[in-house]
What we know:
This protein is mainly α. It has 17 helices and no strands. It is globular and about 70 Å long. The N terminus is likely disordered.
Amino acid sequence: MGAIVKILKKPMSEYQVFLSYPRDMRVLLITNMIYALVLPVIDIFVAAYIMRNSNDPTLVAIYQLAVYTGIPITFMINGFLLRKIRISNLYSFGMLLSGASMLFMMTLNELNIFGVALSGLIMGASFGFFWANRDFLALDTTNDENRNYYYGVETFFYTITSIVVPFIVGWFLISSRQLGWFGGNITTAYQLVTVGVFAFTIISSLVIHTEKFRNPFQKKFVFIRFHELWNKMLVLAGLKGLVQGYLVTAPAILIMTLVGDENSLGSIQSISGIFTAIVLYLLGRFSKPRHRIYIFSVGLLLFVVGTLANAVMFSAIGVVVFMLAKVLFQPLHDIAYFPIQMRVIDVVSKKEKRNEFAYIFNHEFGLYLGRIIGLVMFLLLANYVSLVFALKYSLLIVAVIQLVAIPIAKHIIQQADKEADVMSGDTQGA
């Protein structure tokens, strides 16, 4: 009994740490934790569904292109709607819309360019409402000192779900075919997964309404000119988007091509994920703002190692190594990147006396430009050189380009701190 108490003591103390943070921050975290159960299905199995039913990597890329196009458009629509509608309503609408997009795709009799593109636009609208409001709420409910903890906890749960959910869903999909469930119709299995997605989006939508969140005060959010510090942040956003343009397309195609089926898709990501999740939580719990550049750098170096292994081996083993590196890279990158972004918004929004949402909106276009470049590069290489070359070498090229982000991020952090100190001095002088 004493041993059990010792085991439970530490988790309970961590729960008390969680309770010590503001309620609005905790409600937002809980909402995102529940929705984290949905994101792996959207990120991985939608692409796998398109590949299985069309065997056309180009359709996967077109779907992602439509998703990425829908996001910035919806960011702008969201900005105008925030003048009239509560932010929690728009946030929950975005989560519910993700299930609608999946349902629309599952009901298509034939996967063609039009149907896939329309489904992608709906999913892009879902992400637009979700991320636009999530980023503002994260900015509004946290400060620079507790953001490492916020993103540490959030990425901890995202990593756990990226391990557990693909494994369970992959097992369910492949078992439905092998054991003859639903008459051996795997499409029916995909549709049931979509029902599960709807259920979790409804729960997360209910949770976000247990707290009252404020809308942005200033209504204007579209600007052309920005402070030089923000322009540098946009370069970092473009580099991040460049990777995203590949990572939502290439992994599923790699696995379906070199490894096997959806079960493999889930199993590969579960190998090292528990360790990663624990590391992420500890980083969020104990790291300070000064440690962000080191976390950022380690994540990018791991990504280079993974893409190098894939290029050299280009086999099932190479894909496994790449996927393990990807599982480590993405959360490490995010746990550092988002607090850096929020810190810059804190500084430049006060300096330029503008609505914080203006920077969240503008940031999305930096991401969008990078995503489009990444996707177009992948499509050009796959169609005019070869799919093998695109899968084998272009990931490595993108990863090496990402290393440029390290000195840029370091400079941004230093300049943001300097600008904050100057503004603090001016305030005290006044």
